[in-house]
Amino acid sequence: MTKKLNELSIIEARDGLRTKKFSSRELVQACLDQIQKHDPKIHAFLALNDQAVKQAEKADLNLPLGGIPIAVKDNFLTIGLPTTASSKVLEGYQPHYESTVSKKLLAAGAIIIGKTNMDAWAHGSSTETSDFGSTKNPWNTDYLPGGSSGGSAASVAADMCMAAIGSETAGSIRQPAAWCGVTGFKPTYGRVSRYGVIAMASSTDSPGPITKTVTDSAEILNIIAGNDPQDATTSPRPIENYLKFPSQKTYTIGVPGEYLEVLSSPARALIESAVEVLKKAGHKIKTISLIPPKYSIGVYTILQRSEVSSNLARFTGVRYGHDRSFFGDEAKRRIMLGTYALSAGYYDQYYAKAQKVRTLIVTDFEKAFKDVDLIINPPSPGPALKVGATENEAMFGEMQDILVEPSSIAGLTGISVPCGFIDGLPVGFGFIGRQFDETKVLSLATQFQSLTSFHHAKPSLT
Amino acid sequence: MTTSKTITAQPKWELVLGFEIHAELATKSKMFCACPADHFGQEPNTQTCPVCLGLPGALPVPNAKAIEWCIKLGQALNCSINLESKFDRKNYFYPDLPKGYQISQYDKPFCHDGYLDLASGRRIRITRVHMEEDTAKLQHSQIDGQKVSLIDFNRSGVPLVEIVTEPDFKTTSESDEFLKEVQLIIRALDISTADMEKGSMRLEANISVRPVGKKDLPEFKVEVKNVNSFRFIKKAIEFEFNRQVELLEQGQIPSQETRGYDESKGVTFSQRSKEQAHDYRYFPEPDIPPFKFSQNQVNQWKQELPILPAQIRSQLVASQLSSDSASTLIASPVRLKRYYELIKKGLVPKKAASLVINAPEDKVSTIDQVQTNPTTDVSQILPLVEKIVSENPKAVSDFKAGKTQSLFFLVGMVKRQLPQADANQVRDLITSKISG
Ligand SMILES: [Zn+2]
């Protein structure tokens, strides 16, 4: 069965463009058609690039992403496309400058097809807190896509683009990728520039790709990774060629019991059979013990809320059109909690203590990685939850992201890849690597995809 | 109403005085972005970028030169240097603060625990010297009859060092000496113009009063801000001392507040009540990784320090200059430079100093030993006298007719072409030429 143009992966699309099987204009048009047909129901996009077709006509196909349509999460500043981070506070905001990530994509020839929906200010794991309406899961529109990069994950799952850019503070790439049945890659903190990304929690925000395959994630990482003179927290370490990850190498893989315990039993069964696939392929599986992930919830909540309370202070209404009354409940709750945690007399009790526990978690991982190359880390306790699940659940995101918070606060790299279905909804499998061990993560994930076909499954959109 | 009296008029009360001194660094670019740091006299909002405008997603990248200069200033003020340091966010809302927080330093400033010795030998302790960013500038004006507040972001993000002293000053002459010395040190390091009028050096005095002999700090403190000259800060402190004493003697406690100084009336006035301590909710700036300096690096910086004013002063005094002359020379880099040049030419220190000190500052660089030791060399002057006399027959005949004015004119003509010529000698030569 031949794929429709919009269903192609980056690599397939590039081959087709370069061998002149189709034009970039046709490719972009196929994606726009798909958006026009299905996005009224999915609501993955907040803004579309009305110049996309024109840009496709002029695309330089010699560039690595030449003429390939890519969607970008709405917290990346993009000149010419309004950027709101899904908050009414920034409704209609036209950026004055380009984020480093989108600038690099454009320089690599990509066509930014549109801006994707997200939880407002990236506060959430459902995309249901978007001020512009929730995105729906393409596998079943009664269900949530996850978040905060829910629009990006859904747009890839619904074949509205070749790939999308997301950003993860704790789970915001891996969890929606898991719920939407696509590949979500979280680079090491400091590997990809945050310049021009509307900050959520500055000490953990990590931009990364959401793609149809692991190799596509490597393609994008190869373009967006690297030191940025405009982001002092990017690492000066030279980047590796992520396209040259080994496709055969065997690894020692740690399986933390404390993490498997958090999974729902049908999800656990899928994860265990995914581990079995790796074992059969010759990888060495080793049971390990880590600090139970529940302890990360408190640490992450305190640190993230504290940073949020400060990062959102600039949106006073003096300069961005809409005043503070336009903040949604979730943002207000986070600002209040963070302000409280940083207040005189409470700092030591909350913020300082959270930093100490963070250090313990970092050391715990360092210790574990002495014996193993990679650690199994499923991104979510189970498949997608129903639309409306976040109502009256102030800690919804933190509970859903319990499994990815430890690796996020430790700044590690990780991935989510599809590993099966429960009641027609995808489940994500994943693992994490040491800081800057992107190549190992990509290598093992590709091996998994070469042994399985879950990532080829497509939702039947109606 | 309180009038300005000298502080010695109050034997029962003593002044408790400390300072926060801000200086804008004269680096090429701002503290966290590439915009020019020199904002004085620029068209508003022409030196801005996403970073110093605090636009969403913009990130600060620290200016290494500014950090080096801050540390050097700390070293010049005898501070210890924190080998591990960091920036923190100071959170508060004000329209001149585009991010809603100022990037500053909280518990790990670059420099701490320094001192500066006064001429009397009294030591003023310096709590810390840290680095932060300047705020934007508010301009309150009227447009079409409407009161408006305008914001100029050119100043936003300009590197600012803050020097904090302990409340060690007992008199305003001590504080005056100290503040001027700090200004000299900053200028000697060549890191800031430290110009009070242009606001590149700003003073905040923390003033309170306690009964003589008491050691504890008073429970109140008045901060006097926005005073832009040494003379006025001195007056403001003296006024404030008397005001507080008057209140205390009436059994009242002065309130904790920020006060300004009205230069025309010579009084301080309340600006902002500080009843509640500000909670700035400091926390480590997550956008800038912490710093680690090697001891070698810090030693290297220390070796690069220029000769500081105190050292120059003792050299000058050692070469028989009065301490007044020494201070005048040190206060003016132009004079000091010329002084050394004249010494090199062989002048004795006292002579060189008096020449340099007595000339107007803008003429100092042209003062020459020759010029000020007029020549009487006839072989040099006479040919010129002959030339001038033959070129100006009208003046010569006027002189002959008794107009003495004409003689001055002729002397002037000669001096214009030979400035070092001795005026008496020229006059004599002209007179004898004309009458001879
Ligand atoms: Zn700037």
From TrEMBL, chain A:
What catalytic activity is recorded?
A: L-glutamyl-tRNA(Gln) + L-glutamine + ATP + H2O = L-glutaminyl-tRNA(Gln) + L-glutamate + ADP + phosphate + H(+)
PROSITE patterns associated with the record: AMIDASES (PS00571)
Task: Give Gene Ontology CC terms.
Answer: glutamyl-tRNA(Gln) amidotransferase complex
Q: Which keywords describe this protein according to UniProt? A: ATP-binding, Ligase, Nucleotide-binding, Protein biosynthesis
Enzyme class, one word?
Answer: ligase
GO: which molecular function terms? ATP binding; glutaminyl-tRNA synthase (glutamine-hydrolyzing) activity
Q: Does the keyword Ligase apply?
A: yes
* EC numbers: 6.3.5.7
**Active-site residues, Swiss-Prot/TrEMBL:** 73, 148, 172
- This protein's source sits in the domain of life called Bacteria
Family label:
Belongs to the amidase family. GatA subfamily.
What is this protein for, i.e. what is its function? Allows the formation of correctly charged Gln-tRNA(Gln) through the transamidation of misacylated Glu-tRNA(Gln) in organisms which lack glutaminyl-tRNA synthetase. The reaction takes place in the presence of glutamine and ATP through an activated gamma-phospho-Glu-tRNA(Gln).
The cross-references to PANTHER family, in alphabetical order and at most eight, read: GLUTAMYL-TRNA(GLN) AMIDOTRANSFERASE SUBUNIT A, MITOCHONDRIAL, TRANSAMIDASE
Could you identify this protein by its name? Answer: Glutamyl-tRNA(Gln) amidotransferase subunit A
- Organism for this UniProt entry: Candidatus Amesbacteria bacterium RIFOXYB1_FULL_44_23
UniProtKB/TrEMBL annotation, chain B:
| GO molecular function terms noted in the UniProt entry | asparaginyl-tRNA synthase (glutamine-hydrolyzing) activity; ATP binding; glutaminyl-tRNA synthase (glutamine-hydrolyzing) activity
Q: Where is the Asn/Gln amidotransferase domain?
A: 338-434
- Give EC number(s), comma-separated: 6.3.5.-
The catalytic activity, as recorded, is: L-aspartyl-tRNA(Asn) + L-glutamine + ATP + H2O = L-asparaginyl-tRNA(Asn) + L-glutamate + ADP + phosphate + 2 H(+); L-glutamyl-tRNA(Gln) + L-glutamine + ATP + H2O = L-glutaminyl-tRNA(Gln) + L-glutamate + ADP + phosphate + H(+)
Recorded hits in InterPro entries, A to Z, give:
Asn/Gln-tRNA_amidoTrfase_suB/E, Asn/Gln-tRNA_Trfase_suB/E_cat, Asn/Gln_amidotransferase, GatB, GatB_Yqey_C_2, Gln-tRNA_amidoTrfase_suB_CS, Gln_synth/guanido_kin_cat_dom
- GO terms for biological process, alphabetical: translation
Q: Gene3D superfamilies, per this entry? A: 1.10.10.410
Pfam families tied to this protein:
GatB_N, GatB_Yqey
Q: What class of enzyme is it?
A: ligase
Report keywords, A-Z: ATP-binding, Ligase, Nucleotide-binding, Protein biosynthesis
Q: Provide the family line.
A: Belongs to the GatB/GatE family. GatB subfamily.
Self-association or partners: how does it assemble?
Heterotrimer of A, B and C subunits.
Q: What does this protein do?
A: Allows the formation of correctly charged Asn-tRNA(Asn) or Gln-tRNA(Gln) through the transamidation of misacylated Asp-tRNA(Asn) or Glu-tRNA(Gln) in organisms which lack either or both of asparaginyl-tRNA or glutaminyl-tRNA synthetases. The reaction takes place in the presence of glutamine and ATP through an activated phospho-Asp-tRNA(Asn) or phospho-Glu-tRNA(Gln).
The name on file for this protein is Aspartyl/glutamyl-tRNA(Asn/Gln) amidotransferase subunit B
Gene giving rise to this polypeptide: gatB
